[in-house]
Amino acid sequence: MTDGDIRLRPPRHPVDRRSVGWWSTNLILLFATPVVVLVLLGALIRPARFWLVAPAVVIAVAGLVLVLALPRWWFRVHRWEVTETAVYTRTGFFWQEWRVAPLSRIQTVDTRRGPVEQRFGLSTVVVTTASAKGAVTMPGLDHALAEEVAEQLTVATQAVPGDAT
Amino acid sequence: MSPEWQRFDRRAVPVSAIFMTGVAVMAGVPSAIGLSDISVAVALGWVLPGAVLVVVAGTVAEWLRLRYSRYRVGPERVELHTGMLIRNRRSLQRDRIRTVDVTANPLLRVFGLVSVRIGTGEHAEKGTVRLNPVTRATGDELRRTLLDRAAEPVADGTLAVFDPGWIRYAPLSFVAPLLGASAVGGALNVADWVGLSGGLVEWTIDRLGGLGLIGGIAVLAGVALVLGVIGALGLWVEMWWSYRLDREPGGTLRVRRGLLTTRSISVEEQRVRGVDLVEALGTRLAGAARVDVVATGLATGAEQNKAQHSTLLPAAPTELAQRVAAGILREPVSPTEAVQLTPHPVAARGRRLRWALAGVLAGEFPLVLLGVLLTEVLLHIAWISALVAVPVAVALAVDAYRSLGHGIHGDYLVARSGSVRRSTVALQRRGIIGWTVRQSVFQRRAGLATVRATTAAGSGAYSIRDVAAGRGIEVADAAVPGLLTPFLEEPPQQLDL
Lengths: 165, 497
Known about the structure:
Chain A: This is PH domain-containing protein. The structure holds 2 protein chains of 2 kinds. Chain A is α+β, with helices and mostly antiparallel strands. In chain A, the strands form 2 sheets. Chain A has a 4-stranded antiparallel sheet with strand order 2-3-4-5. The mean pLDDT of chain A is about 85. Chain A has helices spanning about 20-45, 50-75, 115-120, 145-160, and strands spanning about 5-10, 15, 80, 85-90, 95-100, 105-110, 120-130, 135-140. The relative contact order of chain A is 0.15. In chain A, helix 1 runs antiparallel to helix 2. Chain B is built from 15 helices and 20 strands. Chain B is an alpha+beta fold. Chain B has a 7-stranded antiparallel sheet with strand order 6-5-4-10-9-8-7, sandwiched between helices. A 6-stranded antiparallel sheet of chain B has the order 13-12-11-16-15-14, sandwiched between helices. Chain B has a 3-stranded antiparallel sheet with strand order 1-2-3. In chain B, helix 5 packs across helix 6. The interface of A and B includes residues 4, 7, 102 and 129 of A. Strand 1 (about 5-10) of chain A pairs antiparallel with strand 20 of chain B.
């Protein structure tokens, strides 16, 4: 990008600090499952031990690196903002994504809490528009804050007539 | 329409009986042939009662379905009640109805019946009511009453009519090679049913033995291609025969087409958000293009034939396609033709070349690996195919780069991309309901970004691929004034992005 080019500024608010823990737990669960299965099988099936434990070690090492690195990266990248006119988010690391949806086009506002997310006291606010590909998600918000944002968005949405297409 | 409760046409029962008989014959004959190895009596003893059971069960099920289904077209809603054990009640608000499609397969046509699909375009399945079957007259009346509600009278007329000459473009789309491959696969499958699978393959190898491996492959590919072309021609005739595109009073675009199964597809004009000019590589070289409409509330999601629902003109000479596109949008000249497209940075060409070569490499790798491990023949195949594939891939990549472009023309944002399937989308700027800017690690290094305009219409989002990041954001900001403005900044002061 050359100097002087216009660009998107980062949204104002970072996600909750606890998100790092939440994402790490998710990744640990993701990688631990195959590792545990492989190690168990390795313990039981003697002749194939090497071929079961070796991939388990590879997965564990790769997983460990990702568990340590990814959530911290994500935390730096994931940001969100709700203004008078629009919802604005930035997500992703390898594929960074900025999403903007005007409040006037919002159709539904949902708050989601996965089981792990719940334990960390976090919520995800999902805003959908009439576009099949236009949903904007704001993960890693504190429970109370998420409620507040959802409430604010719902009020703003109801103020606009029409079916938002 | 009378606001009373009505039932589907009773003739659905004989239709179903005939259909199930067809199914029973199709399934029964191969099984009977298979079982007749044991003895003819055994074969008939198993197959006949089974066939009778299938036909009776199917017919009774259809009778029950009719018995427990009823619909009502009231002044405000269209209601459909179905189901015997699980009652299913669906009601659509009339002012939400966006499409009324009327189809009739050959069997229904013999009985003078049609199947009507009424859609709101929301919640895929829940937003649709299918009345199957009703008489042709009822179907036409439904279509007229449900869609005709525009206050001001709109000029109507014909936008395009069938030209048999267009058939020359039919074999040039992707359909031909696909059909060819599936025909060969199908032949092997049928041979397998009747226990000739090995025989057929041996027979083929016998015939082609004299040609060597390369010759054999070439002959097979040729046969598949010829079959594919025949299939594509047949499919095209069945789909597009007696096609016409009309603008009807009340502001509806209506496509009528079909040889055996006739279809009538109506799109409300206020739902149109743009057009998509689609050129498959073959048809593009022949100077032809297809016109798809970008509209909200067309069949979405899991519903099949989505592509065909939105196609308003099959591959036809580009000049005509542009004229039809202009007609659909009510513009003097189609924005896809009038727009001055801005090319994208050279870095986008580098990306396409790398993808193309990576694709070739991924294809060659197993050949080389197996060649080293097993036999030298594969190595020869590898270098010969690479000799062909590399120039083709490079040519496609360069062409894909040259296709890239974007621009704003009047009320439309126009974006073009693709080589094998080049698509030029003109999207109404007021139809854009959000933006997504994506940047992969590689794009970031090259200063590129993919800017997607999200919309309620068509596929939900249309992309300006690999545009210079700053330029893409400027275009997005210009296309929908005000939406992105509060989130923009001049970079030199801050380094974060």
